[in-house]
Amino acid sequence: MSPLLVGILFVLPALICGVACAGPLPAPHPYLHHNTPQSQTVGGLVDGISAEFPTSLSNDAPANGPPSETSYCSLRATADHYAPPLPCGPGECKAFPAHNMTPDTCQYLFPEGSPVCCLPVQTKALKDNLGLLRQIFSRCPACQQNLLTMWCAYTCSPHQADYVQIISNQTKDNTIVVHNTTFRLDPNWASDLYASCRDVEMEGGTVVHTEFNTFEKFFYWMGTANAVQIITFLYNTTTSYKNATTSCTESCSCQNCREACVAPPNLDLDFNNTMCKTHLFDHDYYCLTVGLVASYIFILGVFLFASLFYVMWRFVVNRKSLANVLLSVHYDNTVSIHPKEGTHDYESMPNTHISGFMHTPGARKGYLTRYWGFHGRMVARYPLPVIFLCLLFAGCCGLGILRLQIETKPEKLWVSSDSRAAQDKDYFDSHFGPFFRVEQLIFTSKTKGQQMLTYDILTQILDIQLYIMSETVVHDGVEYGIEDLCYKPIPGKGCIYESVLEFWQNNRTLFNAAGDPRGYVENCLKNLLNNACMSSIGAPQDPNVIFGGFDTATADYENSTALIVTILLNNYPENTTVASLWEKKFLHVASQNYSNINIAYSAERSIQDELARESDSDIPTVLFSYCIMFLYVSLALGQLYPVNNFFFVRTRFFLGLAGVCIVMLSLLISVGLNSLWGVAATLIISEVIPFLVLAIGVDNIFILVNTFERTNPNLAVEDRMTQTMEKVASSMTLASLSEALAFLLGSLTRMPAVEAFAYYASVAIFFDFVLQITCFASLLALDARRVGKNRVDCFPCYQVVSEEDARAEEVAHPQSETDEDISSTYGVKKHRHIRSGYAQHEEYKKPRDLLRTFIARFYAPFLMVPVTKFVIVLVFIGALFLGINLAPHLSVGLDQREALPTNSYLINYFDAMDAYLAVGSPLYVVIKSGFNYSKPLEQNKICSNPGCSKDSVTNIYDSVPYIAGTTYSWLDDYLEWIESPACCLTNSKGQNCVVLNLTGCDSCFTLNPVTDRPLPWQFHQYLPWFLNSTVGTDCKLTGQAYPADVKYNPDGTIQATRLRLYHSVLKTQEDFVNALRVAYDVADHSHLDIFPYSVFYIYFEQYLYIVSIAIQDSIYALAGVFVVTLLLLYDPWMSLLICGSVVMVEMDLIAIMYYWDISVNAISVVNLVMCIGISVEFHTHIAHAFLQSSRAPTRTQRAIDALVEMGSSVFSGITLTKFFGVVILAFSSSDIFRIYYFRMYLGIVILGALHGLMFFPVVLSLIGPTKGWFTRLVMSAWWWLASNVCGYTRTSWGGSVNTQYVTGVHSAIHE
Questions:
Q1: How buried is residue 806: exposed, middle or buried, by Cβ count under 10 Å (0-12/13-18/19+)?
Q2: pLDDT band at residue 834, thresholds of 50, 70 and 90?
Q3: pLDDT at res. 26
Q4: Which of 517, 424, 1162, 1235 is nearest to 898 (CA)?
């Protein structure tokens, strides 16, 4: 409880008696450290009250009607005896005319000559004590006025006998005096009086309503605070006192009157209900939801109408049965799911490829295709040199790792250096020093719910605290203790410890001598400024900081179920190493098991330590995931049956290992090059990119190997590699470049962690592709030669079949082809080689061949059935709309618990913070240079005292949500210090008479009669005196709390200042984000150059724009995909279809995020960008095969052809590989891996496969591009340009072009 409040309650009964019965009040002492509420000092003495109080009020009559005709008193006094008063019998004492009442007391109620019940001597004593009352309640004159009105009525009202009755008397000095009275009050009036005072902050930082949450408790305490005379307040509406009350809104600031708080008009504080809503069917629905439902119903109607029309047309015109119409693939009658209609064997059909950029419309191969054929021939012909050059290049790039920098500071990862939070932090640190290193212990009893103020518990806490205080560390041969590291707010004094044991100054002797600790603490809470209860550095304790688990409504500190100990260390850069070493010992002590108490603990280094431990704990999981993918790749690339002598010839473990090693080489190149470019690595990069590159790179390995094996095994390896590259290198290029560019464009974001991820991922993916088409292709050629010679996998020196056996096998199975028959289209003569193990067992088909057959004969035809198409399109569009509808409802943030190991001690600490802490994070409002503090009009823009602007900085911050308590302002206290004549005295020599204890001095200030503010030169001259002042007998104000809040320029002018507040307790991520938004909004709407700063802002500012970053990065990634697919496919419609399907994957993933409770943060944004990159893989190979297909004339047949050609590789090489690797992540020990990696990666893989292998082929069969349409369009445009601009003509459209035409087009291009 506030010590001055205690003083008031003792003084007020004395005012009633007319004398200060309680004696002088103890000197207040404000809080002196940065991150706890500072004491709020109160105003000075004002000469007279006539200017503050009205000259007349309503009659102080009983509530039920006018006073009795004859005025009688219940209490009386004499000139010699007025404390306590003497009793009056019924009708014994009549009121008498007021005469010579002391000025500025109760004359505003009882003018001279009016009947009263008090003597002049009583009003003189009243006058002497009004200074304290005025000083205590100076920030809320309305409360002061209402209280004075009540006590004047109790003491001097001529109708005293109507509502004041004597209950008992006692004998004192042989005189019968009053001991106990009743004072009847109207309950409504009492409630109004309490409302005017409940928010007033007393000395020591205590607010009235935290001590007394009802008016009954407030008046009870006032009546029982003075044992000399006890007043029992009664509440009824019959014969009770009632008068007019003054509302606190008329003269009190927001921080002392909640009704005076008015939110700024332009602030948007309704964060959760900003979306448009509409009322339908007696319920409120989001406009977006209604629009999407209406759109889906419309689409469904269109589809149903079109389907009905189609069925009727096929049924009536073509005479088809209904079953045939609904269940057959009508674009190709030879393909059906009906057994009687027969099927084509797509694997045996010839295929001549055509694609705009890949091939010209004629039979001649395109330039890019011919290049890839040449490239394949070279890497197969010279495998060893290619491998050597690749290794050499990777090794040279890897040297850049020597310059590798790993960024672990969160403020450097999630916020750009030019962001608002980063700039504010730099300004704050440079002017006021960096925020402290906070070490905190939260003690609870082993017995759940037990109160903590017991001797045994406090003794054990004292033992722990003293042990921690005695810990030392040695660094560079120098020993450091806590005294060398801690924050010392008062020069010349020790460290500040926020602990209940500071009531005993952390002294075991004092603790043992004090007796019952609960009773001692209760007494200290009643008088926080009692010298015996002061901390070891002479500062009072803040109960809200050291107690936890109490009822905040009643401030029942004594029954707290938790005690909090906080130690503050300086956080200067040169202090970091030593402080970190000391914190290690601190954590060791806190982690021990104790008999009576549980400890939830944290140090400044804890987050970084636990994040590193989390990364280390997940290394086995990640490695196991890689091993699973490697094992699957190795098994799937080879042929595992039949099991015979050639089993180990057909396996490809070495080739699978080589593929994984190539991924590692690409990572080496990426890390090396980015390190040379100065791009710092992050933990996300080390955890995500290896998995990403392996997952993306494996599909190219499967496609290369599968396509290579589908070539004629009797051809030379060079020819087989040539055909392989001609067929799939273009689609590999398309997928890889799309992914690389998609990630690279993510570097345009403002978030450093995402930017770094984009650089590392794009470089790794690009060089993974380069190494695959060079190094891996060469290794594949070598492996094919190994198989051709029947050499064992991984042990090529061992040959299963001897040369003689091979020649005998050749005689038994002679080749029917000649060299010329197997020559390639390039005219190069090939050499036959020994037939491989595959050739000797052609009757056995590999599992992937079975998958290809399944797709060709069952899956693809079924997918093209009209009913299937109809259902698939509607289902996938519905999923798209669902994702769009749920996107605005995703939560934002990253709970710190999710980033930690599941067994981290910090999880227990965060839970304890949520459960027990009563205050949130400290908040500072910084006023930058250039502000003129000496002008009253400028002062009013900041202060909150009476006379300050209602929309001042202090008042506005006190009125908005997520702010706890009041603003602690040096300016407010300085202005009150100025108004108190006894606080600043000086003589003709300019000496400080208060400090030097001189006499014959005058007040320092000449106050303006209009503004009650000093002259500008006085404001600046005496500000240092205030900042160094102490509490005295005559001055209850001090500025010792504020030296760190005012920073001077070298010339003595004020450079910057700060105000101090507290956030309310913030538990959820939404609370933190909204608290930051509120603080920023207030500053943005202020006309002053100010900014708010709290230690968590640097981490949470990203969430103010994380959604826009996610949208921006996704758009950039999609733009990259569109550009690359357009350049390589040469078909804008196909590029749009690919991007559209990828967007659907993204939106479906957002729906999964909503249902799996995955928030939007930097990790999920990276995953969303990665979703686009990975989804491209599921589409581009199908799209490329669709455009290349020339053996099928219709869209449906081409879609089937594309599925047959690439579906098995996409499923086995992309889907299954990623699936097996992702499933292992479910067994990770950290929530962040299970939530953001396992869940999201699993969603990406499944959704990508569904869209790439189901929805996208259906879309191609319906609206896929016509073969060569864009090429014809471009050639037509060139023909028009050539004929109209250059004057050339073309022989015929669709035929050959004459020499004049070709020359003209060529010239036009160059022009």
A1: middle
A2: very low
A3: 32
A4: 1235
pLDDT tens string 217-243: 888 878 876 667 788 999 987 788 888
User: Strands, E, within 992-1039: which ranges?
Assistant: 1002-1003
Which residue, chain included where needed, has tokens 């009824």? 236
> Identity (one letter) of the amino acid at 194?
Y
Cis amide leading into 84 (omega within 30) = yes
> CA 165 → CA 89, 168, 191, 686, distances in Å?
10, 9, 22, 82
> Cα dihedral sign for 694, 416, 954, 249?
negative
Residue whose entry in the numeric block shows the structure tokens 């107690």 = 547
> Apex CA 645: angle with CA 640 and CA 647, to 5°?
15
Backbone phi, psi, residue 1120, to 5°: -65, -40
User: How is residue 854 written in tokens?
Assistant: 């399944």
- Contact predicate 100/79, CB 8 Å: no
Spatial CB neighbours of 831, under 8 Å, sequence gap ≥ 6: 716, 819
CB 147 within 8 A of CB 156: no
Distances (CA, A) of 236 to 163, 185, 186, 884, 1235: 11, 7, 5, 61, 62
Task: Tell me how far apart the alpha carbons of residues 513 and 527 are, in angstroms, rounded to a whole number.
Answer: 19
DSSP string, 706-719: HHHHTS-TTS-HHH
Q: How buried is residue 430: exposed, middle or buried, by Cβ count under 10 Å (0-12/13-18/19+)? A: exposed
Pairing of strands 175-185, 230-235: parallel
- Three-state SS for 388-457 is HHHHHHHHHHHHHHHHCCECCCHHHHCCCCCCHHHHHHHHHHHHHCCCCEEEEEEEEECCCCCCCCCHHH
Q: Is 1103 helix (H, G, I), strand (E, B) or coil?
A: helix
What is the sign, positive or negative, of the torsion defined by CA atoms of 1207, 1210, 1213, 1216?
negative
1164's CB contacts (< 8 A; 6+ apart) are 1110, 1153, 1158, 1236, 1240
Take residue 862 and report the two structure tokens written for it.
Answer: 């079924």
**Total residues found in the chain within this entry:** 1311
pLDDT tens digit sequence for 1209-1227: 788 777 777 787 677 777 7
pTM: 0.73
Distance, in Å, from the CA atom of 598 to the CA atom of 330, rounded to the nearest integer, reads 74
Closest alpha carbon to 1096 in 559, 449, 612, 414: 414
Q: Which two tokens stand for residue 330?
A: 């009508």
Q: How far is CA 28 from CA 251, 382, 623, 1155, in A?
A: 24, 89, 63, 55
Q: How far does the chain reach from its first CA to its final CA, in angstroms? A: 89
